[in-house]
Fold this protein.
Amino acid sequence: MVSRSGRFTSGPAREVAAFTESVSFDQRLWKQDIQGSLAHADTLRQAGLLSSAEYAAIAKGLQAIGREIAAGKFRWRQDLEDVHMNIEAALTRRTPAGARLHTGRSRNDQVALDMRLWLRDEIAGVQSDLRTLQRALLQLAAPNAEVWVPGYTHLQRAQPVSMAHHLLAYLEMFERDFQRLADCADRANVCPLGSGAIAGTPLPLDRERAARLLGFVDAQGKPRVTQNSMDAVSDRDFVVEFCAAGALMAVHLSRLAEDLILWSSREFNFIRLDDAYTTGSSLMPQKRNPDIAELTRGKSGRVIGNLMALLTLLKGLPMTYNRDLQEDKQRLFDTADTIRACLRLTAGMLSKTRVNAAACRQAAADPALLATDLADDLVRKRVPFREAHHAVGRAVALSEQLGADLNQLTLKQWQSVHPAFQRDVTGAFDLARAMQRRTATGSPGSAAVKHQLTRWTRVLKPR
Ligand code: ARG
């Protein structure tokens, strides 16, 4: 038991080892651990703490271990606790110089470093998955700029929008997610190496050099290192930030999933999900269930839970490193894995989804959707909006009484609710005209939406 040598006379009980180990899940950090060790070894050589021959032996050994792990031939030992001890022990078995590698370093700054390195790469991957999903949304939106559907508030039909406009709403959400991730990556991009266990090291290690080697630099190429050793070994803000961004992304994915579930129901019938993204029922032969969307909605619970678990984990910790912090990794990995799976599956599902334009058109033909436009027409005739709203409300009530649609009222009936209604009242029921009139930025009007489609095509162009 390497970690206890010297101070302890016996190894821990088997049950204790199983309880305290993290290698079963943190072995995932092996690449970053080796990367960090190579940079640290370089710093030690530069400080005169490793000879060139020792450095070469360490570098060669670490690279060989990397190849062994990549090939699946490395034997991970639970009794060596974590990824750090496993790799260091394997190195020392290969070369005695391995025993010098941990000079001026602790697992506390080592694990903080590995996680920052891992997260930096992972965020780039999540961002690329986000882009793929945004492209799938754009592709589905583009041909549907003039396929009108009812827009809903309170899940009650409100006003007409286009299918494209509805889908583009999600592009906005995912774009904010993208920016949040960029922000998170920026704060993760600071090197904690050299903080030691808590109080740094009296040895002359060049922290800036290590940071530069590991790519912890700003836009000008200047190294970025943590500024307080106590904060550096106990800070997991970057993990929380990522899991918070992930939780919000999961919420966005869940809302999109809910829309797709509703739309694919017979009651809405706005879309048809592809067979590949639906499942049958073991009992009811006619069923096509939107399980992928449902699981995406369901998994958001896990991702939100991961954030809560992390915040709870951190809130009562005294300074500085406490073993509790080992519990951060599974929450982090699970958030990343779950989010990425949901992003990819949702993108795949959308790329095979068909919009049922006929059903959309039929739903959007509901003349009541244009009740607000009727009031706006009165406003154009200088009727105060409150009065216009009241008048149209009375017209709606009248049509309900008569068991007719709103656009079936006669001119006499219109004038009975307000004298400002003229023969041109029927013009308000021209859906295409109503949608042409909505020209302001951000509105669902044809031109405004086409403008957005062009903008998104530019933003999402593969580089
Ligand atoms: N496996 C540990 C973790 O994940 C590494 C750091 C251990 N440090 C220590 N002092 N026991 O947090």
User: Anything to note?
Assistant: The two ends are 50 Å apart (CA to CA). Residues 435 and 445 are 5 Å apart (CA to CA). The domain at 366-459 is CATH 1.10.40.30 (Ribonucleotide Reductase Protein R1; domain 1). The longest strand covers residues 156-162.
